[in-house]
Amino acid sequence: MSIRKTLPHADISRIIEMAWEDHTPFEAIKSEYGLDESACIKLMRQEMTASSFKMWRKRVTGRSTKHAKHASVKRIKHRAYGHNKVSSKQNQSRNT
After folding, report:
1. 80, 63, 57, 59: which is closest to 25 by C-alpha?
2. What is the full DSSP assignment across the chain?
């Protein structure tokens, strides 16, 4: 079964975003969405144009920050983005 059919569109978009981020290791994607590196690569190939996929693969191939065992502890963290974010203005008004 295709990965596209098992995940909601919002999750696919977030996985792609995380895969493009320099300091988000594949292990973080696996812990959050259950996709290992090869499944992530497969998803990226399905969702991106051929030229964008080639550019992404060239960028992440050999990049130590994309693998937790090679990255420092500071770089392993990734920011979880929620779909119900509160804008900074709303957040400021709540704090006053």
Report:
1. 63
2. --HHHHS-HHHHHHHHHHHHSTT--HHHHHHHH---HHHHHHHHHHHS-HHHHHHHHHHHTT-GGGSTTTS-HHHH--PPPPSSPPPHHHHHHHH-
User: Quick one: angle between helices 9-20 and 26-33, nearest 10?
Assistant: 160
Whether the predicted model's global pTM rises above the 0.85 cut: no
CA distances to 9, 20, 25, 32, 41 from 79, rounded to whole Å, are 19, 13, 12, 11, 21
Residue that the structure tokens 């290992």 belong to: 36
Instruction: Report the alpha-carbon distance of residue 50 to residue 8 in Å, rounded.
Output: 22
pLDDT tens digits for range 20-56: 998 889 999 999 999 999 999 999 999 999 999 999 9
How many residues would you count in the chain? 96
Amino acid letter for position 48:
M
